[in-house]
Amino acid sequence: MNVSPVTDLPEISAGDDLAALIAERADGDVDVVCVASTVVSKAEGRARDLADFPAGPRAHEIADRLAELSGDEKDPRFAQAVLEESTELLMDEPFLLTETRFGHVSVNAGIDRSNVPENDILLLPKRPSESARRLSDELGVPVIVTDTCGRPFRHGQRGVAIGWAGLSASRDWRGEHDRDGRELGVTVESVVDELAAAANLVLGEGAGGNPVAVVDGFDMDGFDGSDNLFRAVEGDFVRQALRGWSYA
Ligand code: GDP
Ligand code: MN
Ligand code: MN
Ligand code: MN
């Protein structure tokens, strides 16, 4: 399998036809296109100024508490933006861990303050799987929208899929057999996250300017999948445990 960057993309701004910009530059065989959420957001006009988020009492309370804990100034308007992008606040200290409106759990609702010239912040795409669907329809291949996220229990960030279209989120191995003939009972492999992580390695995080990667040589035929990626609360025991010690 090859994962390579699509080079020479310009700075993306609101209204740009991202699919056309990619199609002009991606040549050769392509099985999947992975696109950094940063440029999907820019194209969809999701850049904002903090002035757009006048802080309410809850945001002030959160920012004051985080400032107290960290010793740094915290802008209550940023906390307001996080609250407005979220349906649930899972942790409110020492950072904000929330569920976004489309079901993805991340720090600060995935709001980015890097690689956003001219604006203060960049919100995640409103519905990344719908963004992926539009790009996939235009490009004629499966598309994954990625973001760089931290993870609990392990140091380091990596790419994850926050939206996808044209391929299953996962490959279900249950019912297949291991080398000793035992039937696999639990393994559902998150294919879109694995592809997103590989792509993220190629995209980089800084000024590199490579927000799109193409995957070639990945065969998606012949396996059953599912589109589930974000756990529902009922089956999410870590989130239930968090709820137990977080504020009500
Ligand atoms: P995220 O992981 O979705 O938050 O995206 P990052 O902010 O980490 O950016 C991923 C890659 O895209 C980096 O190589 C950035 O330099 C690049 N990038 C971000 N915005 C743009 C843009 O508007 N144009 C181009 N050409 N590259 C960009
Ligand atoms: Mn970024
Ligand atoms: Mn990001
Ligand atoms: Mn990144």
Topology at a glance:
Layout: E1 2-5, H1 18-25, E2 32-36, H2 37-43, E3 47-48, H3 57-70, H4 76-84, E4 86-91, E5 97-100, E6 105-107, E7 121-122, H5 128-139, E8 143-151, E9 154-165, E10 170-172, E11 188-189, H6 191-203, E12 212-216, E13 225-226, H7 237-245
Parallel strand pairs: 2-8
Antiparallel strand pairs: 1-12, 2-12, 3-7, 4-5, 5-6, 8-9, 10-11, 10-13
Helix pairs in contact: 1-5, 3-4
The chain binds guanosine-5'-diphosphate and manganese (II) ion (3 copies).
The site of guanosine-5'-diphosphate has 22 residues, from helix 2 and strand 8.
Can you tell me about this structure?
The protein has 248 residues and is an alpha+beta fold. It folds into 2 domains: 1-46 and 128-242, CofE-like (60s Ribosomal Protein L30, Chain: A, 2-Layer Sandwich), CATH 3.30.1330; 48-124, CofE-like fold. 29% of the residues lie in helices and 24% in strands. It has 7 helices and 13 strands. It has helices at 18-25, 37-43, 57-70, 76-84, 128-139, 191-203, 237-245, and strands spanning 2-5, 32-36, 47-48, 86-91, 97-100, 105-107, 121-122, 143-151, 154-165, 170-172, 188-189, 212-216, 225-226. Strands 1-12-2-8-9 form a 5-stranded mixed beta sheet. A 3-stranded antiparallel beta sheet has the order 4-5-6, sandwiched between helices. A hairpin with a 5-residue loop joins β4 (86-91) and β5 (97-100). α1 (18-25) crosses α5 (128-139). The protein is globular, with a radius of gyration of 19 Å. The chain binds guanosine-5'-diphosphate and manganese (II) ion (3 copies). Residues 9, 11-12, 36-39, 42, 112, 114-115, 147-148, 203-211 line the site of guanosine-5'-diphosphate.
